[in-house]
Amino acid sequence: MNALTQQAGPAILDEATVSALLQSLRERVGITIETPRWLIKEYLQERIVDLGLGSLEDYMAYLNAGLESRAEWLALVDLLTVKETRFFRQPEAFALVHDHLASAMAEAKTWPELAVWSVGCSTGEELYSLGMVVDKALRDAGSDTNWHGIGTDVSFGAIARARSGIYPARNLVNIPLPYRHTGIEPSSDGQAQVAEAIRSRVNFFHSNLMHVSSAPFAKFDVVFCQNVLIYFDRDTRLQIIDELFARTRNAGLMVLGAGEDIGWHRPGAARVSQRGITAFKKTEV
Predict the structure, then answer these.
(1) Spatial CA neighbour of 97 closest among 120, 121, 122, 115
(2) What are the backbone dihedrals phi and psi of residue 253, each rounded to the nearest 5 degrees, phi first?
(3) Phi, psi values for residue 266, rounded to 5°
């Protein structure tokens, strides 16, 4: 009997084959899918039907043969990863970034360029939030420093949505009013777009954190990586944090999700003492 049984009721997906598929995904992309198993099976069932295949075994064969296989692995990542995000998701972390930049600009005599990186940017809200914070910090300081930001994510679908900078107006509720006035351009069709002053300074790229060491990016004043590392095992997580810290400039700030550092420490990494926030300032060693 095929792993996908055609009958009047719901299709049945063989548990062992689903587990083998998730293991293959972990080996290829490095992530562990925490989505409930029943929901994974529903997603897979719909995908198998969409592709016109007859069973989960057929789908496994499709994933491992032909030119379409790489694109399908990426489609599978899009299908199974939870891309929950919102503007200013952890307000305290963004306030920390603002205060860090304000303090740094007050101390620095010159600052030729400022760069920020949203790691695992999903559909863009995080990087745009960072952009609004940077823009305000520079305006508050009366600085004409040039800045730019990049967002990276393993999901092509999320990147495509992020690049548009267009969101339902209801999604703006979490943006503090001072940022909303300067960072958002309202629309009459129930949509809103991030202001051109922010959009023009950011770029989004597809990138897998498993290969972050080979990413063609320079160093950053702020590296922001929240709610992404939870997908990786402990050893991989520590390696990724090492790479992110290596991309942080001296006196720069690396912000992680609460508890995601799992005891990580390195020379030159001064932990920021602020409740509910996991962040490190890079000092010269």
Answers:
(1) 115
(2) -125, 130
(3) -145, 155
Q: Tokens for 27?
A: 């080996």
Domain chopping of the chain, boundaries = 15-80, 91-282
| Residue 32 three-state SS | coil
Distance CA 16, CA 25 (A): 14
Q: Are strands 184-186 and 248-256 parallel, antiparallel or unpaired?
A: unpaired
* Model pLDDT for residues 122-163, shown as the tens digit of each residue: 899 999 999 999 999 999 988 889 999 999 988 888 898 899
Q: Which residues, 6 or more positions from 283, have their beta carbon under 8 angstroms from its beta carbon?
A: 250, 251, 268, 269, 270
- CA 238 to chain centroid: 17
Helix (H), strand (E) at residue 244: helix 234-246
H/E stretch holding 118 reads strand 113-119
Q: Name the DSSP letter for residue 232.
A: S
Rounded CA-CA distance 244/225 in Å is 9
32 phi/psi in degrees, rounded to 5: -105, 125
Q: Which residue has the higher pLDDT, 144 or 35?
A: 144
Topology given in CATH for the domain delimited by 91-282: Rossmann fold (3.40.50)
Residue 153, SS3? strand
Q: Are 208 and 185 in contact (CB under 8 A)?
A: no
- Distances in Å between the Cα of 266 and the Cα atoms of 40, 83, 226, 262 are 38, 30, 19, 13
Q: How far is CA 226 from the centre of its chain?
A: 7
Residue 180 carries which side chain, given as an amino acid letter?
R
